[in-house]
Design brief:
By secondary structure, the protein is mostly helical. The protein has one domain. Helices cover 74% and strands 0% of the residues. Helix 10 crosses helix 20 and helix 15 packs antiparallel against helix 16. The longest helix has 44 residues.
């Protein structure tokens, strides 16, 4: 008993447990068809999340495997750097008088990874990975082949690309499956962005762990928010064909390069606009609050106050709660790119940074609702109304998955 008490009072572990409970309470409050929730399957999904985190964070084998994966990502980054150096020359070197140029050092990595992922998909390696996860998870969690496959694919691909994997099944998805697809897309980030965020100083091991944890996590939260009440077409197992969309290797590389270029341009444009707007809003808030209060409040301070309680219940130290809260607010209101970029510059403890890495590791922000409507809605127009109606529920679900990952991780570190 003394050991349990000591463990719970160390590093706010008791708050992490409370945080997990609160996350489930929030999910239950917003749940539809509560009587159809299958609690035994939810317990299995949660156990799987905890097991994944424990194996990676607390065993030598798990740490070594993911450490080697992170090393592999770093090597791939180095290969991308060779191409970047050839095109941009000395501008790539951050030690030069021009310093660190984000558009040259980071955005080209997205293009390289877009081509690489397209190549790996063409030769079948991506399919092997997602099929293996689907084969293992679908029977255990009682989820359909389509939604499980999409959730697994989201640990490597963006929401639109993951939806393409099951494009022939999209029109047949039940409402519960459709929400799962949306939440899975919001609760993970792509392999290419893991590499990008790793290049600016975010731990790739923790981002990789968060992405794998989000597979059962997305299935868990989605089946609380909208339990299955229909009979999914692929309930008996995975009968989905993962068709290639490229005719040969060169076609795969070129199409992947163009896709990566579109993503890189979109990321650069969004950062330019969002950071500029954030600065404008910050200045406006400071001036407005200065008229009404003795001390003016900045956007970061307001976000920090609003989200500091959330950061505290997932295990963040009290001295870092306000700063962490501001980063969580930025992630939801803007995007994870901005939040991660500010996190690596913030003065936070190593433990707080680790927990935040999990909490921020997902696409769950307001702008992604538009991406889901535009991307998946274009693939299956009959589901566009559902996506529009349940967009904010999916945002809530994706956020709860990320916070759940963070609370579980904080229990184990």
């Amino acid at each position: 008993m003394n050991f349990i008490f000591q463990y719970l009072t160390t590093n706010n572990h008791y708050m992490s447990l409370l945080g997990i409970l609160i996350i489930f309470i929030v999910a239950f409050i917003f749940s539809m068809h509560k009587k159809n929730i299958r609690y035994s399957k939810l317990f299995i999904a949660l156990s799987l999340q905890v097991l994944i985190a424990f194996l990676i964070l607390n065993t030598n084998l798990g740490r070594d495997i993911f450490h080697n994966i992170a090393i592999g990502f770093n090597k791939i980054n180095a290969f991308a750097d060779e191409g970047i150096k050839f095109v941009f020359g000395d501008l790539v070197d951050p030690s030069g008088s021009w310093g660190y140029i984000f558009a040259i050092k980071v955005l080209p990595i997205i293009i390289f990874f877009g081509a690489l992922m397209s190549l790996l998909y063409h030769i079948g390696l991506v399919q092997i990975f997602v099929r293996a996860l689907n084969f293992c998870l679908s029977p255990i969690l009682g989820t359909s082949g389509a939604e499980t496959l999409c959730a697994a694919a989201n640990s490597m691909l963006d929401p639109s690309a993951s939806a393409l994997i099951i494009k022939n099944e999209l029109k047949h998805l039940t409402d519960s499956e459709m929400l799962t697809v949306m939440i899975a897309g919001m609760s993970t980030i792509t392999a290419s962005l893991i590499a990008v965020y790793g290049s600016i100083g975010v731990s790739m091991i923790h981002m990789l762990t968060a992405s794998v944890m989000s597979i059962p996590g997305a299935l868990l939260i989605s089946k609380i928010l909208l339990p299955e009440t229909e009979k999914p077409k692929t309930a008996a197992g995975n009968k989905i064909s993962l068709e290639k969309d490229s005719s040969n290797i060169l076609d795969a590389i070129s199409s992947g390069t163009m896709s990566g270029l579109n993503v890189a341009l979109a990321v650069g444009a969004m950062l330019l606009v969002f950071i500029g707007l954030m600065s404008m809003i910050d200045t406006g808030l400071t001036q407005i609050t200065g008229y009404f209060f003795e001390k003016p409040y900045s956007l970061n301070e307001i976000l920090g106050k609003l989200f500091s309680g959330i950061s505290y219940i997932i295990g963040i130290e009290s001295k870092d709660a306000v700063t962490a809260g501001a980063l969580l607010g930025q992630k939801i209101a803007l995007n994870e790119f901005v939040a991660y970029a500010n996190m690596v510059k913030a003065t936070l403890s190593e433990r707080s940074v680790t927990i935040l890495t999990y909490a921020i590791c997902g696409f769950s922000n307001i702008s992604v609702i538009g991406i889901l409507i535009g991307g998946i809605g274009a693939l299956v127009p009959s589901k566009k109304q559902f996506i529009t109606k349940y967009g904010f529920k999916a945002l809530l679900g994706g956020t709860l998955v990320n916070l759940l990952n963070a609370a579980i991780a904080s229990l184990l570190i």
